[in-house]
Amino acid sequence: MRLAFILGEIGSGLRRNLSMVVSVVLVTFVSLTFVGAAGMLQLQINQMKGYWYDKVQVAIFLCNDSSTATGCASGAVTKEQQDNLAKMLDSPAVKPYISDYQFESQADAFKHFKEQFSNSPIVDSVTQDQLPSSFRINMKNPEKYQIISETFSSQPGVETVSDQRQVLERIFEWMNGASVAAMVVAAVMIFCAVLLITTTIRLSAFSRRRETGIMRLVGASKTVIQLPFILEGVIAAVVGALLASGTLWLVAQFWLNGDLSRQFLNTPFISSTQVLVIAPVLIALGGGLAGISSLLTLRRYLKV
Amino acid sequence: MIRFENVTKVYDPNARPALDSVSLEIDRGEFTFLVGASGSGKSTFLRLILKEDRATSGSVYVAGQNVANISSWRVPKLRRGIGVVFQDFRLLPQKNVFANVAFAMQVIGKSRGIIRETVPEVLKTVGLEGKERRMPHELSGGEQQRVAIARAVVNRPGILLADEPTGNLDPITSMGIMGVLDKINQNGTTVVMATHDDDIVNEMRKRVVELKNGVVVRDEAKALYTSMIPVVGESRRLKDASEAELDRAQGVQQ
Fold it and tell me: Name one GO cellular component term (chain B) (predicted).
């Protein structure tokens, strides 16, 4: 009976305060979408790190006929220089840092290039001897890139030593920045949401002061008097959180795994099921914030 | 049932206290009128019984319990033992008569079956049979006050507090309400009624407690609204006061 009564009270409260409730839903929706977007960016960064860090290599590019670097003054790399570099890679000074390495000839490089840019007209204008041959090194610890760079970049026949990780790091930094920005927007919006919930609960308590006054007089418990108001705020916020979760799922399902993954075939995007991990966090965050702010408001504005 | 021991209530430290060292005992089943001018402390007296306010000093006992020792989460239990009726009825305008009375039972968790059984019974006691489905605005003032009384007593409280329940009603309707209160009192409920209505007090001949500036100046059984015991110099004082008032009025005219 009491449960039915409380549910009825919530229903009438939501109906009477509809426009305020809708605004609470929308504000929590927007703010939690930003929180969720920040979360998704972090998931995406982790996903890409996991995927790429195993695959990234340090590459020692060797001189070819068209190289302009100072180490390449004597023209394309000779067989002797190449053997020398291979010997250095096997030497005790370097060997402990690398797990393995392969030599990629100009023919291999051309083949990879063609695969990678198969859709682009650039393939037709590039010839095999324009591409450098290289040593592809898998590091035991990618952080130790510096050692390889110092040892090899001044060797004859080496054009340049490049760490693919650095390129990725820049992307991750950018994504991190974006997720921080999303968090800042989210924080401002959450602040707005809390203020709005506070106002809504205040109005709701005011518009029902007759009922609560009578409830107090006939000896209704604090829970029975306050719970409808608190749940009103919590329900509005949870609806907002559900909308936010749904939006993020749609983004993951139809944008990340649709358009975007068709454009960036080699990038591992987070799946829409992974986004569902964020949803409970958003719901708990929305519901929790609404509950706490309603409770504090009632303590001030609803005498029990 | 209700006992005040040297109770003082101060709202504003710079003004005189609303109640000044009041000691009073009201027994179980008694019917007591609380009379006195506005600001004499009648409402404060009722608020202290309900623990709406706490006494500045002294103790208030309700049903043998010192209300100062009742923790805030047990105050609802205290209030379930006390029914309250106001001058302005305080019905819920969007609920019908039955729902208004049932509300008091719903919020303390009574089952639907008990509510269906009890509410018509109580409505019969207050003389509102057959009007369960009416809305408050369809009722006369007297009927509305009967609904309010039904709501106050539906949970069978030991005490009924009435704060000027006839203040908005004409004399004949008021007498009807008094009949209802008297009936409730006959059933064993202690009734405390604050009022200005001298006709009613004179008609009922119950105990009268008169407050003046926060002090009990009279406590008489089967009494009238004004004291039957002559106060020395009182009539002279009243005469002087009214003459002074007249002089002032004439002074303004000139």
Answer: plasma membrane
Domain boundaries of chain B, sorted by first residue: 1-81+204-254
Q: Give yes or no: residues A220 and A185 share one domain.
A: yes
Contact B73 A211 (CB under 8 A): no
Q: Name the DSSP class of A271.
A: P
Structurally, at CATH architecture level, domain B1-81+204-254 sits in 3-Layer(aba) Sandwich (3.40)
- Three-class SS state of B231: coil
Could you list the pLDDT tens digit for every one of the 254 residues in chain B?
899 999 999 999 998 999 999 999 999 999 999 999 888 999 999 999 999 999 999 999 999 999 999 998 899 999 999 999 999 999 999 899 999 999 999 989 889 999 999 999 999 999 999 999 999 999 999 999 999 999 999 999 999 999 999 998 999 999 999 999 999 999 999 999 999 888 999 999 999 999 999 999 999 888 888 876 655 556 666 677 777 777 777 766 55
Tell me the backbone φ, ψ of residue B32, rounded to 5 degrees. -125, 130
CA B125/CA B145 separation, integer angstroms: 13
What distance in Å separates the CA atoms of residue A20 and residue B232, rounded to the nearest whole number?
Answer: 65
Query: Where do runs of H (alpha helix) occur along chain B?
Result: 42-49, 75-80, 97-106, 112-125, 141-153, 171-186, 198-204, 234-253
Query: Which residue does chain A place closest to B85, by CA atoms?
Result: A217
Quick check: A217 contacting B, CB < 8 Å?
A: yes
Q: Which residues of A touch B110 (CB under 8 A)?
A: 1
Here the ipTM equals 0.81
The amino acid occupying position B240 is D
CA separation for the pair B225, B181 (Å, rounded)? 18
Q: Which of the residues A7, A9, A216, A217 would you substitute to probe the B interface, choosing the one with the greatest number of B C-beta atoms within 10 Å?
A: A217
What region, left, alpha or beta, does residue B145 occupy, with left being phi > 0 and alpha being psi -120 to 50 degrees?
alpha
Q: How far is CA A240 from the centre of its chain?
A: 21
Interface probe for A, chosen from B62, B100, B108 (most Cβ of A below 10 Å), is: B108
* A15 close to B (CB below 8 A): no
